[in-house]
Amino acid sequence: MRGTLTHATDATSPRRLASLVLTALLGLATSPGCNRVETDPDARQATTTSPTASHPFAWPSDPSHPVLRLEIDGSAGPGHIDIELMPELAPVTVARIIELASAGYYDGTTFHRVIPDFMIQGGDPRSRDRDPTNDGLGGHDEQLPDEFGEAPFVRGVVGLGNRGRPGSTSTQFFVMQADDRNLDGRYTPIGRVVAGLELVDAISRVQTDRTGRWGPRDRPIENVVMKHVSIVGPVSALAPSLRTDDQADDPPAS
């Protein structure tokens, strides 16, 4: 909540107290992740209306784009999710994600936060242990830059979490299971899913601890594990029909 004080008021007056209470309530309602752990993309679970852009976003298209593969095991069943990384969206961040994945940084981590009709979040190294209470609290010591840009956070888009303030972008990532344009310009996008959206849907349906009885809220009761996360080559080297049906109908850029 930003504003400018233009004159002094009596802090003890009923009118002043009412104003302070209203301001506090509005701040709680609009603060991203105000009741969530760090690196959450957003805490809201209410349905929102996506704004209509006057011009559709022009997604970068390059046959040399690297593909990040998440090999999944656990309660959602085995399978893999392929993500086309787009350096044009966030060059520093994408390069760092490639480096971390190549070093095995994400191997054995879980999707520790799952909210149906919103997103699935994972990649925390602390999720490898048997302690569910620290899931979502970890990350790499090196801070990543904020490379927010104009990419829309629609179904299949992948972004990095943050703490809701500048300079707090984490190495944890989230995959959008549904559109939420409230995230636009607030989180760093790194690409989008080109194969495996059905597995994203399956993960979104697993049973979760909605109340936080055994750790952070929205954590799957049974682990959904990323056994291996790696770069599997350029997007052009994979199946010709790699792009999902959702993305095949994208409107042309103007």
Secondary-structure blueprint:
Blueprint: H1 14-30, E1 66-74, E2 79-85, H2 91-102, E3 109-115, E4 119-122, E5 157-160, E6 173-176, E7 188-195, H3 197-204, E8 208-209, E9 219-220, E10 224-234, H4 245-248
Antiparallel strand pairs: 1-2, 1-10, 2-7, 3-4, 3-10, 4-6, 5-6, 5-7, 8-9
Question: Please, could you describe this protein's structure?
Answer:
The chain has a single domain (66-248), classed as Cyclophilin-like (Cyclophilin, Beta Barrel). The protein contains four helices and ten strands, in the order H-E-E-H-E-E-E-E-E-H-E-E-E-H. It has helices at 14-30, 91-102, 197-204, 245-248, and strands at residues 66-74, 79-85, 109-115, 119-122, 157-160, 173-176, 188-195, 208-209, 219-220, 224-234. It has an eight-stranded antiparallel β-barrel. A hairpin with a 3-residue loop joins strand 3 and strand 4.
Low-pLDDT parts are 1-39, 42-53, 248-254
CATH architecture verdict:
Beta Barrel
The count of strands amounts to 10
pLDDT averaged residue by residue? 79
Task: Explain briefly what this protein structure is.
The chain has 254 residues and is α+β, with helices and mostly antiparallel strands. The protein contains four helices and ten strands, in the order αββαβββββαβββα. The protein has one domain (66-248): Cyclophilin-like (Cyclophilin), CATH 2.40.100.
Which key phrases capture this entry?
single chain, 254 residues, alpha+beta, Cyclophilin, eight-stranded antiparallel barrel, two-stranded antiparallel sheet, 10 strands, 16% helix, disordered N terminus, disordered C terminus
